[in-house]
Design brief:
By secondary structure, the chain is mostly helical. It has helices at about 10-15, 25-30, 40-60, 85-95, 100-120, 120-130, 135-145, 170-175, 185-190, 200-205, 215-220, 235-245, 265-275; strands at about 155, 160, 190-195, 195-200, 225, 230, 280. Bound molecules: iron/sulfur cluster (2 copies) and zinc ion.
Length: about 280
């Protein structure tokens, strides 16, 4: 019987910690209605845990991967993120960005989609048409690569992530970790991680293996209803912005009625199963 990725200990941790929204205040003061057993809190804990693991490893390893502030080529890679991760980005933008910056990111995302249509028609087709997870994986496996444009949340002049404290899981681990096996993302990873990192043995020697975090990640990215796991589609950040800009609250980071990822996990799962766009089932 599959278990949810959380335990009481993890849930207890949440109230006295800095809130997932990035306010710096304790969650029980800032977002008192948020459940400690929510998707937002669990993904935040996952971020903290993997960051700690990477930091510990870096502190003890004599050699380091070349990732540093200002190095941002990998922010032009095509990679999907989960819905909850994207919504946390919106929460962060809402709190820390000006309205003009938010509007500009949504507009940039529309431009990014047009560019993808021109430069990568098969990837564009898979992104914009209903496909199941298998089809999505196939498309990513064969057609994903480096886009001609960076993530719309990047400060292009400084090469800095403008949502750094809220950045998704892959942004935290890419270049700074490796896995020997695990989720589909790892299996899709090309040998070369970026133009500065050869993804072979030398990289494995100087980075931690984060394979243990993948099952938790996948669990939070998908929807669990009883014993059934429903696989939800994941999209690149720019396409999430396009979708939310067109079909959500407009070119604004306000989540409004969509803001339910702070409900208890089982309640949220049931809501997502009822209203989401599950693509296939798996146990
Ligand atoms: S993965 Fe490569 S491109 Fe990305 S920050 Fe690290 S060194 Fe730079
Ligand atoms: S969220 Fe930040 S780190 Fe991730 S791709 Fe965008 S700019 Fe780069
Ligand atoms: Zn908060």
């Amino acid at each position: 019987m599959p278990k949810p990725p959380i335990g009481d200990k993890a849930a207890d941790r949440a109230g006295s910690e800095p809130c997932f929204c990035g306010s710096g205040r304790k969650m029980r003061v800032c977002h008192p209605d948020a459940s400690p057993d929510s998707r937002a809190v669990h993904i935040t804990h996952l971020y903290q845990d993997v960051e700690r693991e990477i930091a510990d490893y870096r502190a003890s390893s004599p050699k380091q991967p070349p990732c540093r502030e200002g190095c941002s080529s990998c922010c032009s890679d095509y990679f999907p993120v989960s819905q909850v991760e994207f919504e946390l980005l919106l929460v962060y933008m809402q709190r820390h960005w000006s309205k003009a910056e938010i509007t500009e990111a949504f507009e940039r995302a529309e431009e990014n989609l047009l560019a993808l249509e021109q430069e990568n028609p098969p990837m564009y087709a898979s992104l914009t048409q209903p496909v199941d997870r298998k089809g999505e994986l196939e498309a990513v496996r064969h057609h994903a690569g480096r886009n001609s444009f960076p993530c719309p949340l990047l400060d292009r002049e400084k090469g800095r992530c403008r949502v750094y404290p809220a950045r998704p899981f892959l942004c935290r681990t890419h270049g700074s970790s490796h896995t020997f096996y695990g989720g589909w993302r790892e299996r899709l990873q090309p040998e070369r991680i970026c133009e500065y990192i050869d993804g072979g043995r030398s990289h494995r020697k100087i980075t931690p293996n984060v394979a243990d975090y993948w099952p938790k990640y996948e669990e939070l990215a998908d929807v669990r209803v009883g014993p059934q796991r429903r696989l939800l589609r994941q999209y690149p950040i720019f396409y999430w912005l396009v979708l939310y800009g067109r079909h959500g609250g407009g070119k604004t980071a306000e989540l409004g009625s969509l803001d339910n990822f702070n409900l208890p996990l089982d309640v949220h799962n049931a809501k997502m199963a009822a209203h989401g766009t599950p693509t296939s089932n798996s146990n």
